[in-house]
Each structure stands twice: as structure tokens, then as C-alpha cells.
Amino acid sequence: MKTKVLTLVFIIFVSLLPVKFTNLSDSNVYESVNYGCNADRNETWTVGLIYCTEEMQEGYTLFSPMASNTSYLIDEFGREVHHWISPGDHRPGLSSYLLDNGSLLRTANLGQNQPGEFSGGGSAGKVEMISWDGVLEWSWSYSTEMYRSHHDIEPLPNGNFLMIAWEYRSESEAAEAGKYPQDDSSRAVTTSSVWPDKIIEVKPIGLDDAEIVWEWTFWDHLIQDYDSSKANYGIVSEHPELLDVNYIDAVGSASGGRDWLHCNGIDYNVNLDQIAISCKNTNEIYIIDHSTTTEEAAGHSGGNSGKGGDILYRYGNPESYQRGGPEDQVLFSQHDVQWIKDGYPDAGKLMIFNNGKGRDIQYSSVDVIETPIDGYGYYLDKEEPFGPENLSWSWDDGTAMYSAAISGSTRLSNGNTLMTFGIQGTFIEVDYTGNIVWKYISPVNDLGIMTQGDSIFSSNGNKVFKVSRHSPMHPALIDRDLSPNDYIENWQNNCPDIESLPFDIDGDGCIDDSDNDGIDDSSDLCWGFDDNIDQDDDGIPDGCDILIDSDDDNISDEEDKCPGYDDNIDLDNDSISDGCDELIDSDRDGISDQQDLCPGYDDLIDYDNDSIPDNCDNIIDSDEDGINDNEDLCPGFNDTIDLDLDLIPDGCDDKVTKNSNIDDTYEDNNVIFTTQNISIGLIIILLMASLFRRKSSG
What we know:
The protein is mostly beta strands.
């Protein structure tokens, strides 16, 4: 019993000691607001930075306006940190890439200086490499009456680069390939000559020369079912590795049908040593083997795949190889195809900017597909179209964002996707769930630098082919001066003497109070909420307080059962916090702990009615004979009364004779005289008297 009492006392003592709870809202663990990009200028700005949140991918964005000879590198706020000007004063034709050494590799549009009479959208003809300091390091023209570079290039790890180019094929060559003759009116639109696409790998030499070290062309991989006399005659649906020379879906009026394929985007996979290319007029993307020699690339065997230069994989329009109809088409005038990089979400999959021209409802989307790859080859059912049937990821904004031509997209390391709606010159970054986290509109058009408020369609447009985002740790940017300059566009700065970013949400140049709480954003603890509302007085405005706890018991006010008191203190464990408990009764005896005579035990249990609860009573003696009940031989009677001395208390002794004339008990000076004691004494006296008589008579 003593052990139980001591344990209870210890528990009560410990419970009364000061307790420190870790409050996640304590100022010492509260993380202040990370002031990243924060702007919403949809109602006030027409160009430049329109919208951004802190969820955007950190880095610098590179873009080359189609109407300008200048390529720009901007920070997340749209401020210029660097630019490259074409030494040849060329507009892009159309892409540009930042190399690891800080140089810019860009296609250049020769414009009116192109030889011959052929023209097509995305025409280039030249490549330039410009140093970080703006010096022309290398340039090379690839434009004659027989061939011309266009649209896109792709830097390779070995320092070379891939280039898309048109090549001229005469009317006789077209006829030999089994192409419909021009005078056959029963057929689709035809042409006397054609400019199909090819891919070349270029090695720069010196300042203005290059070597073509590898070449592949569609013209080496054709099939047709029109002229059985030709070598490439066959059943189109049984040879999807080949391109139907007579398939024409979209014919550009400007090119008169000669820009047959209009390929526009190219990418390289270093792991597979393969090339992906997008061709708008067939509404397809293709994958070919780059591990071949030029000779193997012209044939049907060789390379890692063993298939030479044949198409390894195609996607987007089964009608082009007669394994489907218009209802099966999933790509519509697409531009830009890219493999998602290793380590990025959806790594190894293909991302395509699907322009949407030709859809029943015209809108652009960015689609991600997983190719059914098998080693270096691709699965293909002999009767079914190339899969997959379902997209791995897709984003669109309906008809609100539609770009009929150019455009591109790329996956960022944090899972966001950066896309270019080329016709509108609009760059949009979305997170993986599809939320817009950054939006920028190019402020450069044919008339030059635009002024804030100008419409992007007020002149000849602000078109951009595609953009890229580069980490501050990109090799080209390390140790570079990236101090931001002003915005590219002309704008009205109402507060020129202060640095307002990132606190200029509306774009007027002044520090805003975006949440109208009377505190400038630069000093605001909790953007978007009233800093003055702090119910628990912990110095953290409620809008940013992960735990509003007015009584500091680590339980939010919303869930607090006993406001103003510590919900964690419940000495009697009755699930009622002591601060709100009308009866704190730890031993559940109906008597409060404060009035409890015997803590931990039932005060109402008192068998001997001595007003001391039994569990705290040193002696429980119900019959008041001075002997504990648990040791009592004769409960209810006095164990000390034993007249016949048989060690059985008389109250429980059936043989004891009681004299009603003699009192049961006599007590004097703590000596008890009983009737039995007196009788014995008398007998002894009589015996002694008898002995004395005998002695005397003798």
C-alpha cells in the first residue's frame, strides 16, 4: 500500500512541473516569407512580365525574337541580364542555343540574300556562333539553289551540331520515286519538283568553314503504291519504316507544295544515339538511328538498331502510313519534339508542342508520350498504328492559347514545363499539376522595342520560335556578371529612386501593399493576408500562422477544448482539461483532489468508521479491540477477552461460562481483572490455608 501511495504522489508531482511544448508557430522556428517572383499584371501590362509566383523554376530565360537581330537573356522578373547581337545583322532562322562556354549558337535568316527562287517558312541558310562578349567566333552558310538550312539545330556533346535542311529534287527525280505526276487531276495536289527534308551533322572548322560528317535524308526511305514499275513500290501499310511519297496532308500555299514535309524541330538522345524530328505537314514525329555511317543511313541495315536509316518509330497520324483515318490523328501541325532529360520528371519520354491546327476546335497543347522502346528499336504491331494510345502528361488552356505555327516546349528540372506560344510571342510556365506560375510576353516586334500598353498585334507581331531556361549553375553562367538591367520594353516607372522588385506586383515601379493591410510588401510578414490579425499574439500574422494557439498549449484555437487553459493538463484523465473540469478527481471517488483525504484511493471506503479512508488508515479496527481487521480472530468482538484462557476470544468461544453477577471486564491502571482471575486467586488462598492448618496440628 505504501508503494501505491508513493507512486501516486510522484505522478502528481511530475504533472505539476513546468512543461515546454514545441509550438510550430514559435517565432524562432517560423520561416519568413521567401520573396521570390510575385507579380500579377494581367490587367495592367501588355508585354514583358505578366505573372509569376514563387513556384517557378529558378533561372534565366533565353529567347530570340523573330523580328530582331538580338537574342536576350532575362531573369525571372523579365529584366535583361545579357544579350547577343548578330554580327551579320541577321534575324534568327529560327532557333538559338546557349553553349557551355557562354557562346550563343543560332540559326540566321539570310532573307533576300537566299539564292534561288524557293522559299519556305522557317528559312535560315546560315549558322552563327557568337561569344559571350559579342564577337563572331564562327559562321557558315548552307544555302544554294540545291539545299538550304531551316528552323532548328541541335548541339551535340562532341562539339558538332545537327541541322535540318531542305534538298532539291527535280521533277524527274520525283517521278522516279513514284510521285503523282502533276497532270494527274484525279490525284491530290502535286508538284513538278519537291524539297524534302534531310539531317546533316556539321563540324565547325576555322572561322567560316565546316565539314558535313554525317547525313541522312527522307528521300532514301520512301515507299509508294502508285507506280508498280518503280523499285520502291509496295504496300504502304506493311512498311511503316518508310515514308509514303504521295502522302500530302497540309500544303503551304507559299511553297507551292514543294515544302513537302516542313520539318521544324530536332532533338538528340545521347543515351540511345538517336534523333527525333518533327514534320508538320505529315502531322508526325519520327525517330531515326544516328549510330549509322552515312552509307548505312541511306540503307536499311546497320547501326545499333540494325535497321540503318529506316524510321524506327513514328507517332501522330496513322493515316500517313495507311493504318488509320482522320479520326485517328492525334498531332496537328506540331512543332518541336524533345526527349525529357535524365533526372527530370518523365525522363526519357517525348514532349511535343501540338499546335492544334486542323483540330475540330483549334487549340494548342503540350503532350508527353512514352515510346514503346525495346533496346534500340521500338515495338510495333504489324497491323496496328504506333502507340501509345494514352498520353503520359498533357496541358492546354483551351482556345485561350492557340498558336497555329512555330512554338515549342521543354520540361524543367523541378517538373515544371516551359512553353512558347510562338505566334503570340508568349512564354508560359506551368507546374506539374498545370497551374500557371510564370508568364512573359516578348516586347520586341518588327518595329523594334515595344512600349508598355502596346498591343502585340498592333504591328507585324512579336513572334518567337521557342525559348529555354538555364540554371544559375549552368557552366555558361558561372562567374558571369548577371546584374539585372531594366526591362527590355519601354515603361513608366513611377518610383525611379527605389528598388521595387520583387514588391512591384502591378508594374508601376513602386512598392505595393498587395494585401491592403497598411504594410508595404517589403515589410510585410504575410503576403496576401492582413499582418495586423494575430489572435494568439505570437508575432506571426494568422494568415501565415500554421498554428494559431492563444493559450500556448500546442493545440490550435479551432480544435481547443478548453480555451485559455492548457488542454494537455488532465490530472484525472477524464478527457476534460483541468481548466474546464468542474471536478478534478484523479482517484474517481467523487471527491475533488483538493479535498481528497486519501489521494489515489476511494475516500468513501472506511470499514471501521474512524473517518480515515481505509487505504490511508494505519489500523483498520472495526470492533475497536486494538487489533487490525485482517489479523482479528473474532471480528465484531474484543479479541482480548478470554476468561477461560483457551486463546479463543470469548466472543467466538462456545465453551466459556459467564457469571452474570461478575462484570466481564475490570480495568485499573491498565491491569485487567476478570472473574476467572478472582476465582483462581480464591482457590490458591484456600489451598494455602489448608496447608497451614495441617502444619499447625502436627
